[in-house]
Amino acid sequence: MYTKGTSKIILKKCNTILNRNGDIILFSHVDYDHLVQTVIEPMTCDDLDTICIAYRDFSSDDLPDWNNETSVIDQLTCICVCGIEDRIRSEIPDAIATISRVGLI
């Protein structure tokens, strides 16, 4: 199962991470803090939103209760953290001005 979401939230659910060689290695709280400080915070300072992409393998003999999100989104393996530039569309400032002018804000 693959998942993506806000980096800090998904990373807290990861107990392993893929290294540069594609090997799965343990991912500790210390590693989490280091990744936040050296990757996520610098991207945020560059006005990038970050997402984490992660996965978890399930054996067909031991499938989780898919209705219990807590048991499914746990023990993940982090694949990567991506920085996404989310620019304001050009029409947004005019739309906000119009809404403000008619008294909706």
Automatic annotation (TrEMBL):
Keywords: Magnesium. One of its GO terms (cellular component) is plasma membrane. InterPro entries: ATPase_P-typ_cyto_dom_N. GO terms for biological process: regulation of cytosolic calcium ion concentration. The keyword Magnesium applies. GO terms for molecular function: nucleotide binding; P-type calcium transporter activity; PDZ domain binding. It comes from the Eukaryota. PANTHER family: CATION TRANSPORTING ATPASE, PLASMA MEMBRANE CALCIUM-TRANSPORTING ATPASE 4. This is Uncharacterized protein. It comes from Rotaria sordida.
